[in-house]
Amino acid sequence: MNFLPTLLIASIVDVVISFERRISIGDSVDPKDYPSVVLVNLKNKWKPQKPAVCTGSLISRSVVLTAGHCTGEYEDFVFHSIDFMKRAKNEMRFIATGEIFTVLDSEEYFLERRYSFMEHVGLGYADIALFTLKDQLSICNRTAGQDFSIIKLPIVDVRSGNWTFIEDKIADCRLLGYGAHKEGSPDGQLRTINLTPRDHGNVLYAPLLTDGIQARACCGDSGGPMICHVGNRGLHIIGLTSFSFSPILGVSRHCFGDKDTMLYDVFVDTRKVLPLIQKGLKKLGKLDEFIEDNERCAMVADGN
Description:
This protein has one domain: Beta Barrel (Thrombin, subunit H). It has four helices and 14 strands. The chain has helices at about 5-10, 105-110, 275-285, 285-295, and strands at about 25-30, 35-45, 50-60, 65, 75-85, 90-105, 125-135, 170-175, 190-195, 200, 205, 225-230, 235-245, 265-270.
């Protein structure tokens, strides 16, 4: 048993894990280099004056993949729209339909690795949401000046009735997000960090380095994609930002400033929730669209 599971299991009684919709320190990048990554706008059903943001990925012409917990503990937030940001801070906005599919597991599933917590036995930890847009975006020809593209999931055969994942080695992973940074709250800037994810069996995680070099997820980064090269097949979504925590009793979790809190960022392993994503696309009536877009015009080398 490696160090992380031992530490987490020993700490489960004493540590309260908070789901932070919170990459600080990461490098600012031009959103046009990542035309599948979008800023997700959420509206509070009870307090409209207090909106929130997450990060998402366009996986077909009208479907966005993000984190399930973005809707809030009591589903008090709704997906309102997405923005394709530009360096000049102007953006193109597209409105959501209100149709969603979500699966959100308890964090105890991650902590104890008790697969019996899951209704979807045999799959990984799930914190996913799919929602649809009113507009169907034109995504296939960026050379014509279009600003949109899609990013692939690591699926062996999109036409299969039961999706399985590509087992090639992953490399050169990076995390993307529109979240808060060391200077303050989310500012519409897309940021990225390079990281080496580690496998926890049912999730992926990345520890904060004690020298503070590595950035971490922050408010607004939830649902942001971890994209990696998969063999020689180009970039795919391998993870989704889910939550962060410090397993040290009595130590608060911060996005930045603390270098020695043993902070971990935890990511949904998309390879292990592909059947759920397939189920969600079926429920939303978007599976055929997804298949067509992936076969016809998915941008394998997103960001290159």
